[in-house]
Amino acid sequence: RRRRGARAVKILAIDTATEVLALAADDGSARASLALRRGLQHSPALLPLADRLLAELGFAARDLELVVCSVGPGSFTGIRIGLATAKGIAFAVGCPLVGVSTLDALALPWAGFAGGVWSVIDARKGRWYAACYRGGRRVTEYLDLEPGALRARIAAGPVPILLAGPDAPRFAESIPGIAATDLFDPAAVLRTGADRFASEGADPNSLKPIYLRQSEAEIEAGRRDGR
Q1: How far apart are CA 220 and CA 47, in angstroms?
Q2: Beta carbons of 89 and 60 less than 8 angstroms apart
Q3: What is the pLDDT of residues 104-114, one digit of tens each?
Q4: Minimal CA–CA distance to 102: which of 53, 179, 165, 23?
Q5: Residue 83 and residue 55: Cα distance in Å, rounded?
Q6: Which whole-number Å values give the CA distances from 175 to 16, 120, 121, in the listed order?
Q7: DSSP of 56-80, one letter per residue?
Q8: CA 57 to the chain's CA centroid
């Protein structure tokens, strides 16, 4: 989508916050994207796949005018890989960088759903990251919950219910009759970032990772310090 009269912008979007490596590119007249489930082994493939995607549209990284990156919640390592790569590209090219929530992007393709769309991501250690959306707007905070607590929140929310995200069908197994989709549309990351840039510009605050809990390194440091 583009505002009438707005100049076309060459954009690359990156999401490495989940087990799915998601990339999308737009040159103003065409769009290309890919989504590969790689089990968080994103680093070796990220730059080569990004270069290939840009080449499909006939331009290179040096031509980029905006980079968009997911800032989580999700895998701590995955978020760091994506952000470091996006910052490196944006710095080398001299173009703006915008961060977006992974949960927001997962919900975007289902903005027209008549009910509650719950973006869910397996947070490991028996917990889930989640947020609820209605009519394309987030209606809860970003959550980090045990499965039982998340099921209770979902049951108390708007109906009908759709779970969205790479791990959504697995979580749906614990809720009989609920609808779920594992579609991860990389273009949703791009669209979310492009819209944010159009309305807010390159706000540095958007680049803060969304960490809903401490990393293992922070937990271990706390143990050593007696916290």
Answers
A1: 32
A2: no
A3: 999 999 999 99
A4: 165
A5: 22
A6: 28, 13, 16
A7: HTT--GGG-SEEEEE--SS-HHHHH
A8: 23
- Residue 96, class by beta-carbon neighbours within 10 Å (0-12 exposed, 13-18 middle, 19+ buried)? middle
Residue type, 124: R
Instruction: Tell me the per-residue pLDDT of 162-198, one tens digit each, with 9 for 90 and over.
Output: 999 999 999 999 999 999 999 999 999 999 999 999 9
Handedness of CA 43, 48, 49, 53 (dihedral sign): positive
Q: Which residues contact 55 (CB under 8 A, 6 or more apart)?
A: none
Give yes or no for a contact between 222 and 112, defined as CB atoms under 8 angstroms apart. no
Question: pTM of the full predicted structure?
Answer: 0.89
CB atoms within 10 A of CB 4: 4
